[in-house]
Design goal:
Layout: H1 17-22, H2 33-36, H3 62-69, E1 78-82, H4 86-97, H5 105-118, E2 122-125, H6 130-136, H7 140-144, E3 156-157, E4 161-163, H8 168-171, H9 176-181, E5 186-188, H10 190-196, E6 200-207, H11 212-220, E7 228-235
Parallel strand pairs: 1-7, 2-3, 2-6, 6-7
Antiparallel strand pairs: 4-5
The structure holds zinc ion (ZN) (2 copies).
One zinc ion binds near residues 4, 6, 31, 32 and 34.
């Protein structure tokens, strides 16, 4: 029997009647119920309507007010699924920095359901640089989207953005100021530009920290005429 990838305790999987009757492929659990319970869902009724940050009210948060003051910045809205709690930090550390690809499975299903509910046409994962990809062996953002696009209710996933310059791997080692000062790292893959036209776009990333990455992604896509564009992150 497999053990939980976070706490190493044995996993016991008992199918519910509903799962048995639905004929739906039950996703393999990679973390236990106790570990799942340590993650905190962000409720839309208690989140900044702009960036999705968890807070007590539904007012635009201070971070977003600062973004609004910056010239040429798109007011792209973001929805965050989970708070960036110590549990999420530990998860990200094991998943990204220790490179445990199996952990992608822990959130694939919930990401799929949330994205289906967002009712968009196209999902674009935030890309990683070639250096990061070679080092880690996978794009952590794209891996979380593995189940999206697998049924007829799902939007399609297009890797329409590419990294041109700075290495995202180093981003985690940078301070906030360095991250804000970066120059545009993304460019549209010309193979996808036409396919995005007139569609509702969702830009997906693993974590929203300063918002810099999402704003760059939105700016890079600005040249394409899309119907709408929103951001969506696993953690905020
Ligand atoms: Zn566990
Ligand atoms: Zn905000």
């Amino acid at each position: 029997m497999a053990s939980c990838l976070m706490c190493q305790k044995m996993l016991s999987k008992t199918l519910t009647i509903r799962e048995l009757l639905s004929w739906r492929k039950v996703t393999d659990d990679v973390i236990c119920e106790n570990c799942k319970a340590t993650f905190t869902v962000i409720r839309e009724s208690k989140a900044c309507p702009q960036c999705g940050r968890n807070q007590e009210n539904q007012e635009i948060c201070q971070d977003c007010q600062r973004w609004h003051l910056m010239p040429n910045t798109l007011k792209i809205k973001n929805r965050g699924l989970f708070q960036y709690t110590p549990a999420m930090h530990d998860y990200m550390h094991q998943y990204k920095f220790n490179g445990d690809l199996r952990l992608a499975k822990a959130f694939q299903h919930v990401v799929q359901l949330a994205i289906e509910a967002a009712q968009v046409d196209v999902v674009i994962p935030v890309p990683v640089s070639d250096t990061t990809f070679d080092h880690r062996g996978f794009n952590q953002t794209a891996e979380l989207l593995q189940l999206v696009g697998k049924n007829r209710h799902s939007p399609v996933v297009y890797p329409a953005l590419k990294v041109v310059t700075r290495d995202k791997q180093q981003q985690s080692k940078q301070g906030r100021k360095d991250r804000m000062d970066r120059t545009q790292p993304f460019v549209i893959d010309p193979n996808y530009a036409e396919k995005l036209h007139g569609n509702k776009i969702l830009i997906f990333d693993d974590v929203y920290t300063t918002g810099r990455t999402l704003h760059f992604a939105a700016q890079a896509l600005q040249t394409v005429e899309v119907a709408s564009m929103i951001g969506f992150t696993l953690a905020r």
